[in-house]
Amino acid sequence: MRALCIGGTGVISSAVAELAVRRGWEVIALNRGNREVPAGVMSWQADIRQEREVAALVERESFDVVMDFIAYTREDVERDWRIFRGKTKQYIFISSASAYQKPLTDYVVNESTPLANPYWQYSRDKIACEDFLMNKYREEGFPVTVVRPSHTYCERSVPVGVQGKNGSWQVLKRMLDGKAVIVHGDGTSLWTMTHSTDFAKGFVGLMANPHVLGHAIQITSDESMSWNQIYSCIAQALEVPFRPVYVPSALLAGSQFYDFKGNLLGDKAHSIVFDNAKLKHFVPGFTATISMREGITAAVSYVVAHPENQIEDPEFDGWCDQVISGLDGLRAII
């Protein structure tokens, strides 16, 4: 079986490519060649945005699966459709669980939950991609499968709710320095995070599966934690106290310095529990085996042991101090 992976070096795509190779797939990663592809993956160096170049590259090729991990807009999937129609038995589009309606009418989410997100352009773009591809499936049988991941992570980055432009390390550094950290809301909303290796098990099970053409399928863990529990796991892994300062999500979304509106009001501020019955129907035996505590602890250990992952963000650190001190003044007035 032969798969073309557009991307192949990111958190999700590298885990999928690695597992597919272990299961006997011939996997080709098409990307600009800026990062090393996983072991056993063949590399084609090209920029998918250069449509004529890529079309010429694959002119005499055919694939069992084409999967695009870097398609974000309708224009991206329109280009893929033009290039790969007639050249693949299955095209897998990676959408996002953030596309589900916000605010939610039911905290239990499945594939029939409506798609609508007025807070985040990223999510609306993913919805537009899904609409185009499903129309092509209905009109001409274009063999699309839509996959909706939620918060998927790996050992290279510790997942948090509020962070700056340089990633999550500055949040961990604040904990190590004995500082308080900002937690959106009151920390009690439920959230689900999925380790990339667990996500890959579900994804590879959908590859070349004729029963999933024309379907949208979410892939997440079945476990949920409150944000207080998530941050507590991080603090315990660092062996430091958890010192939260709770800030309303709506207040954070109004920041003049950081764009938290989509990330919070359009996603993380809502309690979400995923129903993965549809995935388990198509991929019998699927289960996410890395618990959130286990995955978070492993990610903390990895980042602490690898200085190259410790990208400091003094701007975000100073912003946190200002927000926290402003809240202290507000509390004094109240």
TrEMBL record:
Family: Belongs to the NAD(P)-dependent epimerase/dehydratase family.
SUPFAM superfamilies: NAD(P)-binding Rossmann-fold domains
Transmembrane segments: none
InterPro entries membership: Epimerase_deHydtase (IPR001509), NAD(P)-bd_dom_sf (IPR036291)
Coiled-coil regions listed in the entry: none
Gene3D superfamilies: NAD(P)-binding Rossmann-like Domain
Record PANTHER family: DTDP-D-GLUCOSE 4,6-DEHYDRATASE-RELATED
Name assigned to this protein: SDR family oxidoreductase
Domain NAD-dependent epimerase/dehydratase: from-to ranges: 4-212
